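[Primary structure, fold]
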Amino acid sequence: MVTVPQAIKPASGSSIISSDDTCPRSEALFDAGIHSSSVWTEHLECYSLSDDEPAKPADEHQEQQPIEETVKAARALYDFEGEAEFRELTVEAGDELFILKEEAGDGWSLVAASSGEIGLLPQTYYTYTSSFLSAPLAVHERKEPSTSTTTPQASLQEQLKPLSIQDTGEWTNPLPSFRQSLLKGKSLNRFSGFVTSGAEEWVLEGYVDPIASSSSSSHQRISTEDSINEDNRLSRLGLGEADRHYVDAGPAWQSKVPKFRVLVHSPSKRTSGLSGAYTVYSITSLFSSTTDESYDPYIPPISPTRITVQRRFSHFIVLHTSLTRRLPGIALPPLPEKQYAGRFSADFVEARRGELERYIGCIVRHPVARYAEVVTSFLSCESDAEWKRLMPQLLSMPAAGPSFFAHVFHPAFNVDVDDATEVIDRFSRHTLAVGKGTQNLRNIFGRIREVRLEMSKAERLLSYSLLSLITSTPSSSASEDVEDTPPQRNGLLNEEGAWCWREDCQDCLKLTKAMQKTSDSLQIVADMYDDHARRTQLASHEALKSVAHPYQCYEGIIEIHQSTVSRYKDALKSEKSNDEMTARCETVLNTTMAEMDTYHDQKVENFSTITREHLDGEINFYEQVLHRLKAARRTFDSPRFDELSRSPRQPSRYERDLKAPKLNPTPLPQPCPHVYDSTPMRPVNTAIHEGIGALLGKSQLGRGGSLLGRIWAE
């Protein structure tokens, strides 16, 4: 049974933490600051998340008192070979760890091994073990023996044995040969979503609200009318409205906040004395005054209420971290990865802006996540000082665990165990098929963009050929066979620039100028093909990422549902019926099935939006091409055709390109890879691979390599 980790305070003189150390003034940080020397000491005191303000030093009274820092026991989930030059810790799966500072920057934690060695370790490579492991002796503070019926009591020596590798499948498998050799074909997922979300503890033991007056840990069923009646909500629990979630018949989440739209725009580069340069994005929330259910969040309201705030990428990390801890039963989209090299280039900033807009857009479209306290603070706190004050509070909030499910209310007896089993099987197969099909669509779409680039080259080549014909100017391939004599003297053009050997030939003058107009129009059409592939179709290509990995996004929900169904069946088959446990199982199943319903609604909305925007882009593109071609065609009709003979022909601006035609455009920009497109690796090594070898050392392939350099291929 995994519960919320309990903080362990080390005694003075511990071999892990010295109580005499104080937090020095922060030094210049490298990006998130994980390589700064301040990271190694600031865990001993409160620190500031502000980009501009250093941590406040302790006052004189505090300096005279020993500093006590919370230390959490943990176990390593996977083998990790750290780089000593970057102060990274090398661990093996099952090693005993002590988390000195959970948030050391950019997904890293400051960790102490049982040997006393201290170093950095990715947060995803360990899990807290306070529920099944007693406090280590090295911390000089014992915990009371566990009374859980699911965790057998054992001696400290037995409890400190390395964890065995479980075969329950968590990682994706982009490198099967490496994993099979390392893990002998097995996967690491002892701590599945059913455990880490708190659903297992909720099902087995329930939850006792320390604030509630009642000491009962059971979760009572309520009637359908009570679950949707506004008058009954406020008197049921002494909780904030944002902490209570209601499920309607379906099951489906009941939305308490109308849909609204969020735009991420106007990125700008800023500089801080502590963290260096960074990019700030403007985030504008558009709230409509209408209560019409047909409100489309992708259509701007007529007279919306606007709230604009300034946020940087590290603030999105705070939002994502807090949401993950407070909403363990919700399938949240993954946050885009951190980028080191080239993160201020115009292409990357625009790609990151689009990724962040899709991320926050998915959050605010979720009927539960959009009214979470951290989301409302993130989108509405216009004061930078107030937001910096709130960030440490949001990060320090404890994980919800079983309390999340304890605050979910639903109609009574609305789930059948057989139906729940069939639903999850069909949902799993469907999301896997959607992911595979979307991946294929992404590959095909990349080829379509390349074809559009080839069409641009073909239209440009046709234009050059036509212009070469009417001007008698040879192309670069035929220049060797033509004499170096002016065309007028060779009889190829007359004095007015007409394509004729006769002087004052009005018919050929009109024809020449009209064909030149056609050649110029073909050049513009070629530019349209090129721009359409680089901008409009790139946006559609990027949008496909948000729907490309539904199974990976909902894998935790699937695990919770399947494990709960198994517990539910066991409870029904047991001789001694446990009504409270079955009721709690129903609560979890209502939660997971409501999440499936949310995916269904978002899938319809996402694919409708992507397809509609693609068709609108194609229609607009072809309308522009048609407009240019029609304009060139009208040149051959009277009276425009007759007016062309009134003045000599002026040379086309494309004639100078005939000797060196521009037929080799730069490669198309490719979408940034999705975080699930490849195995997660260390972001610091991604930076090394991207060209900061002079600062950080040797390179190693990170998660997907360069965000802008990869080309989709399978």
Remarks:
- Residues 534 and 668 are 6 Å apart (CA to CA).
